[in-house]
Design goal:
- The protein has 375 residues and is α/β, with parallel strands linked by helices.
- It folds into two domains: 6-122, Rossmann fold; 129-370, no CATH class.
- It has 15 helices and 13 strands.
- It has helices spanning 6-12, 28-36, 50-58, 79-89, 103-108, 137-147, 151-156, 159-181, 187-198, 207-214, 218-230, 244-249, 266-289, 331-339, 366-370, and strands at residues 17-21, 42-46, 67-71, 95-99, 118-122, 234-239, 253-256, 293-299, 305-312, 315-323, 344-349, 356-358, 361-365.
- The protein has an eight-stranded mixed sheet, sandwiched between helices. Strands 2-3-4-1-5 form a five-stranded parallel sheet, sandwiched between helices.
- Helix 6 (137-147) packs across helix 13.
- The model has no long low-confidence stretch (mean pLDDT 91).
Length: 375
């Protein structure tokens, strides 16, 4: 299966250096090696490999390499200065692709500037849109909710194999990556936090409540969630507010990149899968077209809430509610449909017999709608 970022990255490699990030095992290395097939003399070097690290340090890769793929290069001391010099002195026809885990994004934001030298792409799990040529939308959405969108467990097609993969995946993340961010004695608290978040998907997260459960300070909970976000284990969906700073401070909803890890019923897993698909759609438009588009949810002080809202240039364009089977618009969706008449209101139902319009609200097949997104 050709991943959805293949063509955009291939196009941009002719212009600048490309940085490809995303969760571990989401398919970055596979995509990079697939892209190599479009070049005459490409070379792949992984800094985790001792021999490759020595080649990188000595600048002794093939002289005629028309494409360099440098994987996990952010683990090299002074990597940004190295990359800056490499890009500025490269042969004119040499393409450079930098790949790595989400930590590459974290390190990219500090130190030596790489401004103007690269394009950034974020690779996300498989979505309904990406499966449109191989699976019917309903089946694709069902499988993604059950197995998650990471390639290995999804392509296994079996819940047992997916569970085995998931157990090892999160064990390795906690044992290796999280330790690099925090202190060893904090691992137990972070593991417990991860378990609590699995049961609170789709609900606004109270740092104070979580802090009470874990018997730690609210600011510590916030820092732990930031670490989980930086590692692309979870991602926040923040409430929409015209005042951006105020929206950031208000309670986010937390979702997992891996829907199969969600410890809730089928409806909550479905909402998590839809959140991943929406995030992928938004980030694709941001990375490939520079669009000013964002993903939010909406909640009022008196408890009226919309699952998701897509905004463009600070204005809400779409109101989205997700339901497993219920096809009756909620009072909240009706309320916001009247309050925000310029936005389209959608009720996306997974198990739906017939699409219809009701009071200005489009009641649509969820899988079909997600198959028409940009990514």
């Amino acid at each position: 299966m050709e991943r959805y970022l293949y063509d955009p990255i291939l196009k941009d490699l002719k212009k600048k250096m490309v940085m490809l990030t995303g969760p571990r095992q989401v398919g970055k290395t596979w995509l990079a090696k697939t892209l190599m097939s479009g070049f005459r003399n490409p070379q792949y070097l992984n800094y985790d490999n001792f021999d490759d690290a020595r080649i990188i340090g000595a600048h002794s890769w093939a002289i005629g390499a028309d494409m360099l793929v440098l994987d996990e290069i952010h683990k090299m001391p002074g990597w940004k200065r190295f990359i800056k010099g490499l890009y500025d002195t490269r042969p004119e026809d040499q393409a450079i692709l930098i790949t790595g885990s989400s930590r590459l994004d974290t390190f990219r934001q500090s130190g030596e500037s790489l401004a103007g030298r690269y394009f950034r792409f974020r690779l996300n799990p498989i979505s309904v849109r990406e499966l449109q040529d191989s699976l019917a939308p309903f089946e694709a959405l069902s499988l993604l909710s059950r197995l998650g969108g990471f390639p290995e467990p999804f392509l296994s097609g079996q819940e047992t194999e997916a569970a085995r993969w998931r157990n090892q995946y999160y064990t390795d993340l906690i044992r290796e990556d999280i330790v690099e961010f925090g202190r060893v004695q904090e691992i137990r608290s972070m593991r417990l936090l991860l378990e609590l978040l699995r049961e609170r998907v789709g609900s606004p997260v109270s740092y104070t409540s979580l802090a009470g459960d874990l018997q730690i300070a609210p600011n510590t909970v916030r820092r732990y969630i930031d670490i989980l976000e930086n590692l692309c284990i979870v991602f926040p969906v923040r409430p929409f507010h015209a005042n951006v700073a105020r929206a950031v401070l208000r309670e986010p909803k937390i979702y997992f990149y891996d829907s199969g890890f969600v410890k809730e019923d089928e409806g909550v897993r479905l909402e998590n899968t839809c959140a991943v698909c929406l995030l992928k759609h938004v980030q694709y438009l941001q990375d490939t077209a520079g669009e000013d588009i964002d993903l939010h949810y909406i909640r009022t002080k008196d408890g009226r809430e919309i699952d998701f809202a897509l905004s463009r240039q600070g204005k809400v364009e779409q109101l989205i509610e997700i339901k497993l089977s219920e096809k009756v618009p909620t009072p909240s969706l009706r309320f916001f449909r009247k309050r925000l008449p310029e936005a389209s209101a959608l009720l996306l139902v997974h198990n739906l017999r017939r699409e219809e319009q009701r009071d200005g609200i489009s009641i649509l097949l969820a899988g079909q709608w997600f198959s028409q997104l940009s990514a």
